[in-house]
């Protein structure tokens, strides 16, 4: 009840009491004067009328009882009268800030393809006997090749397949132990077996010393040692082609946060192509069925995983299956689908939201809402409902569904990998049985429950005022996350 309503009620009550008091006094005086005459019922009638009048005044003017306070958290902004304004702002922001020019993206991809093709070609031809070598190709992965990259076509991810000597056979082990630390979820060990023991005996010691580690008394490839070899190999390949690339492109190679990054700056006559590009080169082993094992540095983590040896573990990549699912969606969804647009806008929501946080929480926010986790959440949501509902005209409704789904996952502290350990993955994706039967992987494992609750709250808060934030940031340069 407001203070104003309380004051009105008190004033009415006091006025009524005063009026009643005056009437009683008036009645008493009249009774005294008329004590010698015949009694009359008229004063009693007047008193009754006064009391009834006071009652109705209090009844009519007293405020209604206050509504019960809702203890539940704030809800998503309803798609009512504010929805058109929100959609206009989001559409404008998407067109001006998020949507990539197909022309510029095509030129960027062409530059990356040309330079990296020359690098891996050199790496394939220049090799020694019984050592690792490049397969001679590369695999395009990530948002730039899946049509959900935002901001600018300046970041690319490529898998560079490597081969072991022909006398060796790769034997990946996906079910390592019953329970792994969350850091090692979605990993495998790549064991090696010689095809010919007599031939392999000549090179075994040198190869084992350079690339291998012993796990459970068996020889396995060390991801850390393979990474060192890969870095060195790429630098040698770049030195071979660098001179012939000088006229058309500036090329440098460096290790940033333990990742090998190829920096490209085209020297083109076209102004639109003057974009500095970063290409992440990732060494990978192809173990069949479009499954790749990716090397990890694991620096400084030996003490965390004891008695396990982290350098023996490789991350499982199923990029080809993800791209197959996205291609299937192109056919199954309406002519003007909005699922990728929803993913791009949610990435922008993450980026504009992180600007308001301190550095520590911003890092955690971006780690939880990383591009891969967002794509995984979208995959799960797409399989929940009819694909016809992902038409462009339902953009706002689907965005609200995606935010609600994320909040549900954060509150339950669970976002399962779409492929690993998922026996219900669609059959047309032809995911190998060994992948379906591994231990399920929770992508939110290892994050504190309080942190996930805070991310859920901030996600809702950011979404409910996203149109205001994007209006303010439409003219600003935002940090770019893939």
TrEMBL record:
It comes from the Eukaryota. It is a single-pass type I membrane protein. Residues 145-321 form the Mab-21-like nucleotidyltransferase domain. GO terms for cellular component: membrane. Pfam families: Mab-21 (PF03281), Mab-21_C (PF20266). Residues 338-424 form the Mab-21-like HhH/H2TH-like domain. Residues 1-20 form the signal peptide. The keyword Transmembrane helix applies. It is found in: Membrane. Its main location: membrane. Keywords: Membrane, Signal, Transmembrane, Transmembrane helix. Belongs to the ITPRIP family. Belongs to the mab-21 family. PANTHER family: CELL FATE DETERMINING PROTEIN MAB21-RELATED (PTHR10656), INOSITOL 1,4,5-TRISPHOSPHATE RECEPTOR-INTERACTING PROTEIN-LIKE 2 (PTHR10656:SF9). This is Uncharacterized protein.
